[in-house]
Amino acid sequence: MNPFFLSTTLIAMIFFFGSPAARAEPLQVGQAAPDFSLPDQDGKLHALADYRGKWLTLYFYPKDDTPGCTKQACTFRDEIGELSALGTEVVGISVDDSASHAAFARKYNLPFTLLADTKGETAARYDSLRSLLNLKMAKRNTFLIDPEGRIARIYLSVSPANNPTEVIEDLKKLKGS
Q: What's the pLDDT score for residue 2?
């Protein structure tokens, strides 16, 4: 069977039939962002505390090197100049491992950090995990976190092509630019 067809079918099954791994209460704008400590594409650990004093665009995505995820990552890449000028770090998270992230980042020249949440625990804390049997996948959600570590904006089920533009527009409003 064609591997692309199989992976696409599995992604569709998780998206449409997978049960979300939900928190007791949904995250709200203004509350402290859940902490994390995850390895990046180079194996270096990153924690939420590492981003204190900066804006953080934390985006969850289902799978490395798939059409929608590639579109979203490349759109963030293409907008990284404006995002950086607005003072935000961009960090992507999926359940893929560091080696997969390294290949994905290298293939598409992604200039930002990709974190490996292989157990899906961070995605679950951010209400951004779907699971079907033993297969876990992140939902396509984005969180804009302020320099104090509080959630400033929540974007659910985002459009891969429009998500970076939404973040830019909101950052300009929040910063009074």
A: 61
